[in-house]
Task: inverse folding
């Protein structure tokens, strides 16, 4: 907030940020996450078929940690894409609010301008009537003073 009463954003900067972030998701993060998932889960699990309970337990812990890491990576991919979309939504909403405010301001200004014009016309008409009244009053006074002659 610049002065505590309004919010200012760099709309072009936000658009650029959103585009760069979405590009990163589409070109790097999502394909990499898919490749990592395949590499980590595509091979036969080691240690699961061993007779040693300690090795089996270690293998299961490893696989659970890998699944957790893969889930985290997929969540990160999803949330990064959501952040990119949210950034563009903020810019769009901010822009639309600016447009709506400008339209409302123009409408108010237009109404004020019309009211001012009407007021000016009313004053001009009142001035014209007052001048006519003064002219007629002067004419009447002249008639009264000069015996009905104009």
Result:
């Amino acid at each position: 907030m610049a002065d505590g009463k309004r919010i200012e954003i760099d709309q072009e900067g936000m658009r650029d940020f959103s585009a760069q972030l979405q590009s990163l998701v589409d070109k790097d993060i999502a394909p990499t996450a898919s490749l990592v998932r395949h590499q980590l889960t595509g091979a036969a699990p080691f240690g699961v078929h061993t007779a040693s309970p300690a090795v089996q337990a270690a293998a299961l812990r490893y696989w659970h940690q890998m699944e957790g890491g893969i889930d985290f990576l997929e969540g990160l991919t999803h949330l990064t894409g959501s952040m990119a979309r949210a950034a563009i939504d903020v810019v769009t909403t901010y822009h639309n609010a600016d447009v709506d405010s400008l339209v409302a301001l123009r409408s108010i200004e237009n109404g004020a301008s019309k009211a001012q014009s009407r007021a000016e016309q009313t004053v001009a008409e009142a001035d014209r009537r007052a001048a006519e009244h003064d002219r007629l009053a002067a004419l009447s006074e002249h008639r009264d003073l000069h015996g009905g002659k104009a």
Summary: Residues 53-145 form the longest helix (93 residues). The mean pLDDT is 83. The chain is about 85% helix and 0% strand.
